[in-house]
Amino acid sequence: MKYVIINSSEVSSINFSEVLQTSTKTLRYNLDGTKTFVKYEGDQPSFLNGKTELIHAEIKTELAKETWTEEL
After folding, report:
1. CA-based nearest residue to 68, from 11, 22, 12, 5
2. Is the separation of the CB atoms in 3 and 44 below 8 Å?
3. 57: in domain
4. Of the residues 3, 8, 16, 29, which has the maximum number of CB atoms within 10 A of its CB?
5. Structurally, how many domains does the chain consist of?
6. What's the pLDDT score for residue 70?
7. Is the CB of residue 63 less than 8 Å from the CB of residue 35?
8. What is the pLDDT of residues 21-56, one digit of tens each?
9. Whole-number mean pLDDT of the chain?
């Protein structure tokens, strides 16, 4: 599985037939709503050309940051 973080302004460019999320309602956003991510298997979808791919361990590290997770 691979992941790519995108800006919220790019959500309208997501081709949901190429990623594992099914709609905008299944996306997870960072706390200020400016970023989200998509996950997929296989080759990077063309609408993500030039974006940095992350593997599972890398996305877990990113999502653990305070910009994505509220401190308890």
Report:
1. 5
2. no
3. yes
4. 3
5. 1
6. 75
7. no
8. 999 999 999 999 999 999 999 999 999 999 999 999
9. 95
